[in-house]
Design a protein that fits this description.
Blueprint (H helix, E strand, L loop, with lengths): L2 H8 L2 H11 L3 H14 L2 H11 L6 H17 L3 H14 L4 H11 L4 H16 L16 H21 L4 H14 L5 H12 L3 H15 L5 H20 L3 H14 L4 H12 L8 H21 L3 H14 L4 H13 L3 H14 L3 H16 L5 H11 L8 H13 L2 H16 L6 H18 L3 H14 L4 H14 L2 H17 L4 H19 L2 H14 L4 H29 L4 H17 L4 H14 L4 H14 L2 H18 L1
Amino acid sequence: MSEDTLQTQTIDPLEARVVVFRQQPDARGFAQLRQELRDAGRGELLADVCATWAPHERDPLRAADAWSEAGEAMAVLGEAETAIEYLQLAIELDPTNDRATDRLLEIVEPGDPALAAEIIERELAELAQLFDPARKRPGHDGRRRADVVQRRAAQHRRAAELWNEHLGRVDRALWHFQQAWKLEPHRTEALEAARQLYHSLGDDAMVAKLFGAELEVLGNDKSAAATARKAHVRLELGKLALRGKDLEAAAAHLEEASRLDPTSLEVAERLAEVYAAPGFRGGDDGAWRHKASQLFVEVGRRRMASRDDATGINYLRRAAGIDPQSKGSSVALEEALSGAAQWQELDRMLRHRSAVVQDPAERAEVLRRRAALYRNQLPDRDGLVEVLTELVAYEQPGSKAARELRELLREDQAWDALSRLMEAEINALGQDPSTPASVLVDEILELATVVREHMGDRDRAAELLHQALSVDPTHEEALARYVDHFRERRDWRGLIDLMEFALDNVREAGAPDDELVRRLEEIAQLAELRLGDIPRAIDAWQRIAELEPGSPKVAEALRRLSARAKMWEQLVASLEQEVASAPSPAQRTHVLKKMAQTYRERQIEPRRAIELYEQIIAANPDDDAVLKALGELYEREGDDAGLAASLRRMIELEDRRV
């Protein structure tokens, strides 16, 4: 086989046709050959054909298209420099050629962002003039205005990214973002990017202005998406105003956001912060704090409902912190803490609330909840006693809390605290006209028992018994215990006075004569035997005689007492004569001692004996025997002041002797 035959067999027909076309280019042949090369995937030949025909094409747009395809083919083949050259030729002929521009940017942008930005801006300038009648270019009549606007907006966004991310020109980036949004107001990506840039520059005013511009674009659109977007924009404007300390503007934006999106937790939280700010709207701070607290309660409950307990409790804490006086926020927080079993914090919250609440009923309710906590979840006996002590001041005497507190104090043997509690309840019962006398007396007697048996204060117990008898003079137990008190004290005069008091009361109550006689006989015996008060004993028997005329017993008692009284009168007269005729002070003192001793031993007129002993001490302060006798008389008479004076003088005498 010859060499000519081999050469013929290896010739590529498409390549041969390209050679022929290169020598004789024509439009018809170009169109046909280009399509065949495309179909065959022969990029190197396609680039050659397009580059060959482009200089011959009279229509600039078609020429640009040819150069563009040649550049694309060369780019695929990896011939970047040639591809750039061909694509630039295409763009020079048709600066609005999207295809050429995009392919050129793909090549140059990674390595030369500045050139890429220049290419985009040159295209944008041409696109902006595309529909200007004064600068109308042939061949562009077929492009739809909407497509051009979309292309311009996209290229502005692309240029903005280059200037911002690669070239460091924020001003140019902002300008391109704004132009993109103006062309496509319904697309907010550019506007959002511009806002982010202004935010990074600290220009909150411009950020707010751009948000306002977006609101204008949204206008009266009531669709769900538009409404949600308006709510978001209002929220952002509110946050900006809040950061700028413009509370009024912040409130206006956030209130509108809340109206548009009532379910937004962030809106509610921000609005609550505005309402809670001091001096908001120049009105009543308390009223606005209350509204803020209500908002936080709402947010907290919604968080709790969505199982976000920790966040919900935090919101409720804020609600209670903003308005401690609000019952709603405190109750909500209490319920949340109880549900989360956070007993320690619940205790702290209730403690704080009980300290700030002013309304008595509400304070009592808080104290009851604290008491329940100390009984069950946080057992604390001391804390329970403390809370119940506060609580009983707001409740009626004998309430469940008062009974529980009494029992606790008895178990703890806290007698002082128990006595104070009982005394307070007795005072409260005494001020209530509807309290039955028997109830009041029973309370007084119980307190008297505590005071006497556990506190050892017999005098205070006696005062309480006297108080009980002032309420019910005929109460048998009170009277019997008071009698025992006087007998124990050996205060016979006081005992007789008490028995006279009881006698008057039973007489007024219509007691029979034999009961009156019995009581009078007891008085007579005490007066005679314990006091030596013969006149008082005679008076008692004489009253008996009025009730039992002709009684032999009465007659005998009166005879005996009268004889004794007469003998006593004679003895006293004789002693008084001796005192009067005593020749010296020493003799007079001796007779006074004899006279006082006589009164003392016969237990007659002890007050007269005391008077005589006082005269002796006045003359002779160092007579310790007289001081001792005087002290015994004072003690027998129940005269605590006199007894104390005697004891003091005895101590002073001992000191002088030392």
